């Protein structure tokens, strides 16, 4: 099962979202609640399941890069 997260400025601010639609809804709510947010400030990414506890985005996981040299 793929888990998704909402990210702001490279940091995961909300996780444990289990569908792209749920994640997009959460992203839109964050964007709406932040009057200073610009387009693209909040993004949705699939989570790295190997480093889930560190809230890393799949494909952008710093820990995977360190371990595997990606």
How many helices in DSSP terms? 2
Structural category: alpha+beta
Give the termini distance in whole angstroms. 23 Å
Assign an overall shape.
globular
Biggest sheet: strands, sense, closure? Answer: 3 strands, antiparallel
State the helical fraction: 25-40%
Radius of gyration: 12 Å
Strand content: 15-25%
**How many beta-strand segments?**
3
List the secondary-structure elements in sequence, H or E: EEHEH
Mean pLDDT: 91
Low-confidence stretches: none
Q: Strand order within the widest sheet?
A: 2-1-3
Model description:
There is one protein chain. The protein has a 3-stranded antiparallel sheet, with helices on one face. The protein has 2 helices and 3 strands; from the N terminus they run E-E-H-E-H. A hairpin with a 2-residue loop joins strand 1 (4-8) and strand 2 (11-17). With 70 residues, it is an alpha+beta fold. 30% of the residues lie in helices and 24% in strands. It starts with a strand and ends with a helix. The protein has helices at residues 20-33, 62-68, and strands at residues 4-8, 11-17, 42-46.
């Amino acid at each position: 099962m793929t888990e998704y997260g909402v990210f702001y400025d490279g940091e995961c601010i909300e996780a444990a979202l289990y569908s792209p639609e749920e994640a997009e809804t959460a992203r839109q709510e964050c964007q709406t609640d932040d009057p200073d947010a610009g387009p693209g400030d909040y993004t949705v990414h699939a989570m790295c399941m190997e480093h889930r506890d560190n809230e890393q985005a799949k494909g952008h996981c710093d820990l995977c890069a360190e371990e595997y040299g990606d």
